[in-house]
Amino acid sequence: MQRPRWSIIPPVILTHPVLPMITSRTRRNTRSERTGPGIASKSPAKAARAASGRVKIGAAAATLHTTTRTLTFYEDEGLIRPKRTPRGTRLYSQDDIKRASIVQTLSGIGVGMQRIKQIALARQACNSGKESSHKIVPMLETLEHELADRIAKLTVLQQDVRRGAELIRTCWYCTRKPSRTTCTVCPVEASLDDSLTARLVWDPDRGD
């Protein structure tokens, strides 16, 4: 007599130790396919921050190649106004980062912080576009003239430094001690007047 085929899963398979592992893995895969990669792990706050384009202070500082302390100083001075989460985390927009960038540049070339604040905060204290224009344009024109003068001086200095490097490069293979008393035939000695930078590098007791 032919034995009947199983119409259901045999009891021995249901109790097999591997089956629960396979079933659990299958359920996890099904959830991943349903939610998509990375969606389940991203919190609503992170998703909202990513959508707005805002970044935390560490990322903003890294973008500007500066420190978080510098950014908080700019905020204290009223130059940038990052938003805060309910827990107090600062979130910087691209506008915040761009404002911080020009503040950083102006400060880096020697423009005082009080002057930067004067330029940055003047408009919001005015009652009309006419008033703000008449107040801010002279500030910027004065700054432009100062920058033009500084650029001209820096250009001259750049040329002098370049000439100094060219002169001192003539000693590239010299084996004598670098002193005017030990190297009386130094070619740089006769050309020091061509570069103030070279004169700065050379012996202070030249005697002329």
Could you describe the 3D structure shown?
A two-stranded antiparallel ribbon has the order 1-2. A hairpin with a 5-residue loop joins strand 1 (83-84) and strand 2 (90-91). The chain has helices at residues 11-14, 18-35, 44-52, 57-64, 68-76, 94-108, 113-121, 129-168, 196-201; strands at 83-84, 90-91. The protein has two domains: 44-134, Multidrug-efflux Transporter Regulator, Chain: A, Domain 2 (Orthogonal Bundle), CATH 1.10.1660.10; 135-208, no CATH class. The protein is an all-alpha fold. The chain is elongated and about 75 Å long. The chain is built from nine helices and two strands, in the order αααααββαααα. The N and C termini lie far apart (127 Å).
What's the oligomerization state? single chain
Count of helix runs: 9
The figure for the number of domains is 2
> Residue-averaged pLDDT, rounded?
82
CATH fold descriptor of the largest domain: Multidrug-efflux Transporter Regulator, Chain: A, Domain 2
Could you estimate the helical fraction of the residues in percent?
55-70%
At the first level of CATH, the class of the largest domain is Mainly Alpha
Structural class from helices and strands? mainly alpha
CA gyration radius, whole angstroms: 35 Å
Q: SSE order in H/E notation?
A: HHHHHEEHHHH
Strands of the largest sheet, in order across it?
Answer: 1-2
Overall number of strands = 2
Give the second-level CATH assignment, the architecture of the largest domain.
Orthogonal Bundle
Q: What kind of sheet is the major sheet?
A: 2 strands, antiparallel
Can you tell me the residue ranges where pLDDT is under 50 for at least 5 consecutive residues?
30-35
Distance from N terminus to C terminus (CA atoms, Å) equals 127 Å
Q: How would the global form be characterised? A: elongated
Provide the β-strand percentage band: under 5%
